[in-house]
Amino acid sequence: MTRISARGIDFGAIRTDFSLTADFPPRAIVEAESAVDRYAAERADRTDLALVTIDPPTSMDLDQAVHLERTPTGFVLHYAIADVAAVVVPGGDLDAEVRRRGQTFYLPDGSLPLHPRVMSEGAASLLPDLVRPAALWRIELDERAEPVSVEVSRALVRSVARFDYAGVQADSESGSLHPSIAALPEFGKLRLASAIDRGAIELKLPEQEVVGDGDGWRLELQPRTDADDWNAEVSLLTGMCAAKLMIDAGIGLLRTLPAPAPGAVAALRRAASALGMDWPTQVPVGEFLAGLEPNTPATLVMMTEATSLLRGAGYAAFDGEVPELVTHSGIGAPYAHVTAPLRRLSDRFSTEVCLAICAGTPVPQWVRDALPSLSDLMRGSDTLANKVDRACVDLTEATLLAGREGEVFDAVVLRGVDGKREAEVFAPQATVIGKCLGDPPEGEAVSVRLVQADVTARTVKFGYPATASG
């Protein structure tokens, strides 16, 4: 594949357009720099656990550390989560700023953190060989990796090693996984099988990522390893356990997604038929998608079309009456965010609810007071994050292809014209997904001509057939 790169991309313009800043109010910085563990006196010392972290290689805001033990009857999972509630004072200036941001925003040339870096990449981060306050989950699982008991409590922990996904994958293939995660492949495969049984719908789409290329930038498709999926299952399991605790207690914050509309599933079945795919009527959509051969044009088309199944994601806060919708159809179960409090606002509050439930103590009033506003705060923050991500990719695509109008590219048609949207194609040579004029045949490999690459508008358009003038 030809590598195409570009220089001089100004992501600062995107920060300006979306009013993003890395700067914190001075008093919030003072709070972060002087933060102390408000719960130091009640922590158990669990520095005996050989926890390890698995994150992208450049990450410094390490929310999670894991220890997974295989037992004669199943597994015991210890999952340490940075205890952000212990170092952010409710009602303070830092708390107010964090609520305004909602989450960490990631741009190719740097992140805009939810918390000041002195906290998120320093005092609260689960960096290796450092003692840190944590909310420590302990989940016992049976032979099928289904949970049989759950608890979370405050503890002091210490990570003993730091890994990334590619390294974990390589160690798994060579049979040299760290003892603390030696059981991760078996656990991960069992949990992935459980997801199919639950009717979960997991989409494995190519994720465009803007990466540095010397003094320029290029687009890559983010590779996803088995280790990514295994590690994700640890977080998903913890989130499902947290949701059950909150539902049973009648208080909390859930991440929800309604079931796909029958018409959306029917449309996906028609697309599969048009592509010549065998989809037996008794096979659920999640099982069908999970069984597709990866990295083929037809699979790419199906996964793209299947995004229509996962619409309407939201948050449901409750204190007393449990909401009607408590499930997340993509996961196939009730689910809550509790594993990334350094990077996502909601997790601090959800974790505090679970800690109180397990301790048999009242949920703190500052948590109860915040719950009604969290759904809208997180929904708005998620929308903004998606727009920022898309703007960065769009700007890079347009910059990469600017001045090359008229060139012909091989492409795969992801979506055809349906009256509501233009066709969409993926051009692997440039790692670009763009709108396409004309009426290209969905799911087919075609040649398209670049007709527009507008850096100012951040738009790219192709034309079909390639012989058309555009």
Explain this structure to me?
- By secondary structure, the chain is an alpha+beta fold.
- Helix content is 34%, strand content 26%.
- The chain has 12 helices and 20 strands.
- It has helices at residues 12-17, 26-33, 93-101, 117-123, 165-174, 184-198, 226-249, 262-274, 285-290, 297-305, 345-359, 365-401; strands at residues 5-7, 44-45, 51-54, 64-71, 74-82, 105-107, 110-112, 131-141, 147-163, 207-213, 216-222, 251-256, 314-319, 327-328, 333-334, 408-415, 423-427, 432-437, 445-454, 459-463.
- A hairpin with a 4-residue loop joins strand 17 (423-427) and strand 18.
- The two termini are 26 Å apart.
- The mean pLDDT is 92.
Uncertain segments? none
How many helical elements? 12
Biggest β-sheet description: 6 strands, mixed
Q: Name the helicity range.
A: 25-40%
Mean pLDDT: 92
The end-to-end span amounts to 26 Å
Output the radius of gyration.
23 Å
Count all strands and give the number: 20
Principal-axes shape call: globular
**Percentage of residues in DSSP E strands:** 25-35%
Structural class: alpha+beta
Describe this structure in a few short sentences:
The chain has helices spanning 12-17, 26-33, 93-101, 117-123, 165-174, 184-198, 226-249, 262-274, 285-290, 297-305, 345-359, 365-401, and strands spanning 5-7, 44-45, 51-54, 64-71, 74-82, 105-107, 110-112, 131-141, 147-163, 207-213, 216-222, 251-256, 314-319, 327-328, 333-334, 408-415, 423-427, 432-437, 445-454, 459-463.
